[in-house]
Amino acid sequence: MGTLGDTRLLLCCAFWGLCLASDYDDYSQNSTNDQAATPEATPCPRAIPGDQATVNNVTYLLIPEATRAQLGSAVTVRLIPCLYSLVFLLGLPANALALWVLATRAERLTSTVFLMNLAAADLLLICVLPFKISYYFLGNHWPFGEALCRLSTALFYGNMYCSVLLLTCVSADRYLAVAHPFSSRAFRTPAFAAGACAAVWLCAAALTLPLALQRQSYPLLGAGLTLCHDVLPRHEDDGFYFRYFVALVSGAFLLPLLLLALSSGAVLRVLLRGGGRYCHAAKLTALVVVALVVFYVPSNVLLLLHYSSPCSKLHGRLYLGYMVSLALSACNSCADPFVYYYVSEDFREKVRRRIFRGSKKTTTSLKTSKETLPRSKHSLV
After folding, report:
1. Distance (Å, rounded) from C-alpha 63 to C-alpha 44?
2. Cα–Cα distance between 202 and 187 in angstroms, integer?
3. Given this model, what pLDDT does residue 288 score?
4. Fold assignment, 68-213+236-372
5. Region (Disordered): which ranges (predicted)?
6. Nearest C-alpha neighbor of 347 from the set 380, 301, 307
7. Is 108 exposed, middle or buried (0-12, 13-18, 19+ CB in 10 A)?
């Protein structure tokens, strides 16, 4: 009787072990088609999917060794933080100086209000980067706590899409100034621009609120690492976050990109009718659209591809490329000051006066690149 009981116990243990092995093989590289059928039915969560394990009342996540190796690769712990460091070193002084000059030396025009808010959005994005730089240089380890992980994730995405929306406002404002200079004068006021900027900030905050309300950091079992946003529980609100990111990309990127392209195209037509006088400004206007496409399209396309693809076929490979594209999108914060501010000769002159003769007050008002275009071939509309 004891032998029969032991046999039953061994059979139960063997069956339980096979069930566990089958669950792990769902995201293993050696999984079969039948085993992969279940995770293929739902999209991936907004990061690399991991299985939960509770040890001593602490929730850990498990991911395949191949995926863990990719997270610790040279691309993640060397290339990405180096890109963020470059953005921080170049973007911080460039945007801070531009905001300082716009706030203290610029005449309060509609374009000035939009450009000040754009510089502020770029600065807020750059201020988050030291935490991300430390995170990647530490080998994907987040030592700053859950609250700061949520805040930095929400600020990073929020300010990125806030910049896109503000760029669209700048482009639309320049279209009205060039194509309809007289009829648009009634509502192209600093007060109207301030209201539009407030709406953009509120919209960006609302769009990224779900990221701030959900847990973002989890420790990896047996790795001694706490990851922020990169690995999240498998099948946790998968459908909701897929729809959320589709709405985020559509409303905060694709639609603004379309509006920016249309308004910039209309501006280009007006400029090209003026002949060679505005050739330089026309090139810079085209550069605005090209820069937005180059910096933001890869990350948004990979975002949708990753979150709409079956988990069992990805294993974090596409997400690694997505992290690199996010670092590339942050580079736009370095490009904005030189495309929108320092391209103007008048702006550069005001910067020189502000730095070298800061105590000397002048009555000459600073015109932004949009306002000086009709007078200077070096200004951008």
Report:
1. 14
2. 21
3. 84
4. Rhopdopsin 7-helix transmembrane proteins (1.20.1070)
5. 362-381
6. 380
7. middle
Predicted local distance difference test score (pLDDT) of residue 73: 85
Among the listed residues 244, 339, 340, 261, the one whose alpha carbon sits nearest the alpha carbon of residue 297: 261
Distances (CA, A) of 204 to 21, 31, 91, 188, 289: 43, 40, 21, 23, 21
Phi-psi region of 54 (alpha: psi -120 to 50; beta: other; left: phi over 0): beta
Q: State the pairing for strand pair 226-228/231-233.
A: unpaired
Where in the chain are the domains?
A: 68-213+236-372
Structure tokens at 238: 């998968």
Rounded CA separation 99/95 (Å)? 6
Q: Which two tokens stand for residue 146?
A: 């859950």
Q: What are phi and psi of 226, to 5 degrees?
A: -115, 115
| Predicted pLDDT at 330 | 92
* pLDDT for the residue numbered 344: 72
pLDDT at residue 357 in the model? 65
**The 3-state secondary structure of the chain, one letter per residue:** CHHHHHHHHHHHHHHHHHHHHHHHHCCCCCCCHHHHHHHHCCECCCCEEEEEEEECCEEEEECCHHHHHHHCCHHHHHHHHHHHHHHHHHHHHHHHHHHHHHHHHECCCHHHHHHHHHHHHHHHHHHHHHHHHHHHHCCCCCCCCHHHHHHHHHHHHHHHHHHHHHHHHHHHHHHHHHHCCCCCCCCCCHHHHHHHHHHHHHHHHHHHHHHHHCCCEEEECCCCCEEECCEEECCCCHHHHHHHHHHHHHHHHHHHHHHHHHHHHHHHHHHHHCHHHHHHHHHHHHHHHHHHHHHHHHHHHHHHHHHHCEHHHCCCHHHHHHHHHHHHHHCHHHHHHHHHHCCCHHHHHHHHHHHHCCCCCCCCCECCHHHHCCCCCCCCC
Give me the long-range contacts of 268-277 (CB less than 8 A, separation at least 24): 270/178, 270/179, 271/178, 271/381, 277/377
Low-confidence ranges of the chain (pLDDT < 70): 1-47, 234-241, 274-277, 307-317, 357-381
Instruction: State the residue for tokens 């105590």.
Output: 359
